[in-house]
Write a structure and sequence with these properties.
By secondary structure, this protein is of the alpha+beta class. 14% of the residues lie in helices and 26% in strands. The protein has a domain of 62 residues. The protein has a two-stranded antiparallel sheet. The C terminus is likely disordered. Keywords: Glycoprotein.
C-alpha cells in the first residue's frame, strides 16, 4: 500500500479522507511510525481528549521509489594510520582500508 501511495494510485488515495498532496504529484518519500493508542479516562472527555497516543518507534523507515544517486567519490580518500612498536602501520577503524581488512586476503603496507 505504501508503494501505491508513492505511485499516486487513485484507488489507494480514495481510502484517505484528506491527502495534502495533489493527485498528479504524489509524495517522493514515505515512512510509517508506530504508536500505541489508548482511551483516556471518562473524566478527561470533557476536554475533548478521547484517546492518547504513545510513540513506539519506526514501523517503516523512509524510502522512495526513486532514491537519490549516491554522492560522488572524493578525489583523495582520507586515511588515518597508526604506527605500532615495530613500525608496521595499521589502519584505524575509521579509514576505508580498515573495512576491507576483514576479508580473507589482508593487504600489507610497506
Amino acid at each position: 500500500m505504501l508503494v501505491k501511495l508513492l505511485e499516486g494510485s487513485p484507488e489507494v488515495l480514495s481510502l484517505i479522507e484528506y491527502s495534502p498532496f495533489p493527485v498528479d504529484q504524489p509524495p517522493r518519500y514515505i515512512r510509517a511510525l508506530r504508536y500505541k493508542y489508548s482511551f483516556t479516562k471518562w473524566s478527561n472527555t470533557s476536554s475533548e481528549e478521547w484517546w492518547r497516543r504513545e510513540y513506539k518507534g519506526i514501523y517503516v523507515r523512509p524510502f522512495s521509489l526513486n532514491p537519490p544517486p549516491p554522492p560522488p567519490p572524493t578525489t583523495q580518500p582520507s586515511t588515518t594510520t597508526t604506527t605500532s612498536k615495530n613500525n608496521h602501520q595499521h589502519p584505524t577503524p575509521s579509514s576505508p582500508s580498515a573495512k576491507s581488512s576483514s576479508s580473507s586476503k589482508k593487504a600489507t603496507m610497506k
